Amino acid sequence: MKKTMILTAAAVLLCGCAGNSDAPSARPAEYTDYAEMIRTAETLPAWTVHAACTYTLQFSDDSRQVFILDEDLAAADNEGSTAHLTQEINSNGAVVHTDGWYTGDRLYNTYETLQYYEDMSFAQLKQSMLVPVDLMPVDETETETLNRTEDADAITYEFILTPAGRTRLFTARYDLYQLGTGKDYEVSSGTIRQTFRNGILAAEETDFTAAVTVSGEPVQALYHLEVRYEPLPEPLELPEDFAEMTAGYVPYEELDPGPADSEGDTPEEILQHRLVSRLGYAEESPGVYRTEFNTNEVYVIDFNTKQFIYSNRTSRYVYNWNGDTGGFGTSCNYDYVTRTGSSECKDSVIKTLEDVKTYFEMELYYCEMSLSDLKGE
To answer: In what order do the strands lie in the sheet with 288-292?
Structure first.
């Protein structure tokens, strides 16, 4: 759920450069100018912020996984009397949406088919976004080089970070996949660009490259984030039918009943409970849960056979989480550990099988679980 939006995918990249993080080389005059800009920076009275993030994991066999995030937050004022938050999350083609209205210290949120409300402060609402949007002053001690450029009424500060600076900032502020928990983790490059226009932060652009080792194989991660801040084009008001629209919303706690033991005694029982209560799955037979995205695409999770099944029209792809294997049709078998398929597996089928495992991992993520939880590791 969005309340604890922390991805648990296990992947990162292998790279690294040694450096002296205690010896920033940027000119003091640039920092004096930047520090004054930060000190005098003003905030728009009513604003909208758009965040677009692309997080790409590249594997040693040239395959990749791509996570794309678009978020928009509009605020009637800086106290958050009224705000509107929308999110689109695309993980290798699996797309989910949220749309929430905030008023009276309460978020009324629609998460796919789920509708609920949750009490929170305006600061907590901003923190619930998957990328940071508040202005962050970049410290001189974490900067290797600072470049300042000026164009008309815009001033841009580009920070090339030290090894220690880029590792700390990426790990603490930007790393959705929590790559820092992996083996041989290292952030090999990091750049932050902040643009101010008429004394107001107008944009921030961030790029990082990182690496880690997964199952003995190097994985490279490329992170790119663009955030734009703009004046609100017109007054932000709640929809006219807001009261009627939110009449059926339930407290968030009713979607998340609390400790795991209230949902079941085993990881499988907990997942079964959350598939129904959070994602709208239906149990079509004992141990078999199903959901339909449209007339063509269907997800089935069969706990009897330990299989996640993705069907698109007449095509049926299977991922078995017990053996970390997959299949298509009667003759194509795939091993996710060695990334090898039988001779009958076409390259296009193997790519879809890789995507299918990601689809399942995303379903687990939305249920605040992971493959290791399900396997009892």
So the answer is: 282-285, 288-292, 297-302, 307-312, 315-320, 325-328, 332-335, 340-341
